Amino acid sequence: MFESPTLIDQINALLPQTQCGQCSFQGCRPYAEAIASGAEDINQCPPGGDEGIRDLADLLGIPSKPLNTKFGVHKPASVAFIIEEDCIGCTKCIAACPVDAILGAAKLMHTVIAAECTGCELCIAPCPVDCIVMQPAPPSNTERSRAQKSAQAKRRYDARCLRKEKEEAEKAERAKKKKLALLKMQGAKK
């Protein structure tokens, strides 16, 4: 049986899914929830720009308005680029990327998958050697529609969230087993 999308789902689908936090929320869905509840305005998403605001206004049947520049300004599509010779392999950019668009391993050089990068800029601040710069998005990124980019970014973000949940559950299970083993050892010594 098909369920129709909720208003939150419809709003979320119109957001760019950069998960950048510029709107003052920890991702696009929390912002969509705030819009749906009437707690926040539709003009707080710089990556979505005026076009995104118009789409939200049309969905909600309200007048469009300009982007609230308190949250930033709309910029042309860009992607992160890692200056390879400066990268120390700290993995802080990998941890910060909400869509797993950065590849690499500890103490090895990292690289950005340009076709997957949303341009959120979240990888820049944690980099201790300032080896990440933003560059104009390649034509392959700019040719896709906003809806296609948003849907792809949402799939990657959701997959990352599921992976992180699984990792946390596995970590908790290992800690539980380790604790039980220690308790057994302590019980055997008595």
CATH superfamily of one domain: Electron transport complex subunit B, putative Fe-S cluster
Structural class: mainly alpha
Q: Which CATH first-tier class of one domain would you pick?
A: Mainly Alpha
The stretches of 5 or more residues where confidence is low (pLDDT under 50) are: none
The span between the termini is 59 Å
Strand sequence of the main sheet, in spatial order? 1-4
CATH fold-level label of one domain: 3-methyladenine DNA Glycosylase II, Chain A, domain 3
Level of helix content?
Answer: 40-55%
Count of alpha/pi helices: 6
Please state the second-level CATH architecture of one domain.
Answer: Orthogonal Bundle
Element order: H for helix, E for strand? HHHEHEEEHH
The rough form would be described as globular
Number of strands: 4
- How much of the residues is beta strand, in percent? 5-15%
